[in-house]
Design goal:
The chain is α+β, with helices and mostly antiparallel strands. The protein is about 40% helix and about 15% strand.
Amino acid sequence: MNNFFELIEKRESCRRYTGESIEKEKLIKCIEAARLAPSACNGQPWQFYLVTNSDIKSKLVKLTQASSKNASAFIVILEEKPRLQTKIVNNLKNQEYTQVDIGIATSHICLAATELGLSTCILGWFNEDKIKELLNIHLSKRIRLIISIGYSSNKEPSKKTRKSLDKILTIID
C-alpha cells in the first residue's frame, strides 16, 4: 500500500483514458471504500450506480463531458433523503451534512481507485434529467456527482498547482 501522502499526491482528475476495461473487483472495491466512509449521524445518504455497459457509457459521455469518452466505467452518485436525526442536526447547525457526506464518500472512491492503479474525474456538469431517464432513476432522486473511472493515458501525474500553506492556514497558538 502506498503512503497516504504519496497517494494524495498521485490522485488527479483524468481527462484522457485508454479505454482499457477494468476488472469488476476493482470497481467494487472503490464502492466498498465509499460504503465505509463516515457520515453525519451514520446516515449514509448515498446510493451508487456503477455503469460499465458500453452503449450506456457512450450515452453518458454525451450527457456529461467529452473528456470522459474513453472511461471504462462511470459511478453515478445519488443523494438519499436524510434520516430524521440528520435533518434535525442539519437544522440545528444550519449545515447540509448530506452533501458533505457525499463529498467524503466521493473522495474515498477516488483515493481507492488511485490505490488500485486507476484514474478518476469527478464530474459536476451533466444533464441530470436525461441521465435519470437513461438509468431509470426516479425523478424524485437527486444525482449529486458522477465519477468517470479508467486507466489514464498519461503515464505520470501532472505537477499540482495549489495555494501555498501560508495562504490557506491560520495557526492560533
